Amino acid sequence: MIKKEMIAMLLAGGQGSRLGVLTSKVAKPAVAFGGKYRIIDFPLSNCINSGVDTVGVLTQYQPLRLNAHIGIGIPWDLDRNIGGVTVLPPYEKNGNSEWYTGTANAIYQNLDYMEAYNPEYVLILSGDHIYKMDYEVMLDFHKANNADVTIATMPVPYEEASRFGIMLTDDENKIVDFQEKPEHPKGNLASMGIYIFSWKVLKEALIKKSDQSNCDFGKHIIPYCHSQGNRLFAYEYNGYWKDVGTLSSYWEANMELINIIPVFNLYEEFWRIYTKSDALPPQYISEYARVDRSIIGEGSDIYGEVYNSVIGVGVTIGEGVVVRDSIIMKDTVIGNGSRINRAIIAENVNIGENVEIGIGDEAPSKLDSKVYNGGLATIGEYSVIPSNVKIGKNTAISGTTNPGDYPNGVLGSGEYIIKAGDVG
Asked: pTM for the full model?
């Protein structure tokens, strides 16, 4: 029988509804990041850099791009005869087809996959965080404390603590109490959604709690393990970690990459971030173009000006274009004379000539002010923006639009255009 010391289960099925039109056709872990990467590249690269060579990727919502990106795992050296990377979508069992409901339910439905490797430990990861972590160091901590469950934690500002599971620990880092998204937090040590379980403990808890609807680690499995007297420990992490679950945090994390000395360095030789990349020619920057403090992806053609922005691969920026403080993803084309300010523009978007994006004063979004805020203009993939229109802040556009969609040629701040078949 195969025996692996530790295998990883990577939860990558989330819709990422707080990313609005960016995830209307693609799972959040497959969203582009930092020009040439996708969000899921970070936990996958962490696995191989930490010596974890068996990873199950649990997919559900809009998995096509994710599946194509992962393939058989070659970029991460995860194409193995034994182990490697396996994509685990929900499947039909004995005539009843079940979607994954909750994070723990997704893991429970793959007990057979885990059993096949007879692991001593199981590492549970989220597919939508940007960070570098050596899981081997966390495993050493787990073993040293003779722990049943180790939860990666980090201190967060008290005013943000109610968004997280909060751990209360003693002097030995043992968890004595915890609160799941508390209204009045007793502490500020937040769970990062990264867990190491001793396999027997995880298996028993999943079987016991499997009948819970929307069975979840924070709400059901961790409290159950605690109630059984299992040894729970908090592993405190102090490096860079970003939950890019909102448009503002996604935008900020990309912008942090272009600092002269970035907080998060993508280019460290000893901890590389791997991705599936196409063979592309180098960037072309015309003699009349200006580029300052920006990342420019391979295969992009720049004829205009780009400041403080992250430009993906294969992007065309026309003559007279000025792009500031923006993220522009793969294969998007921006027509001559356009001006883009504080925008997130998804893949394969076509923007006409003399378009102005990010104009005027802010106004709250009429579509969803919890999603569209921070003064950003967001345009979903494969959208088309006609020439000579102006688009305000906190706006959302998805689909092929035409001049008639813009009253007097303007989409004011807080307004949106979502074409039939597209979701906001």
From this structure: 0.89
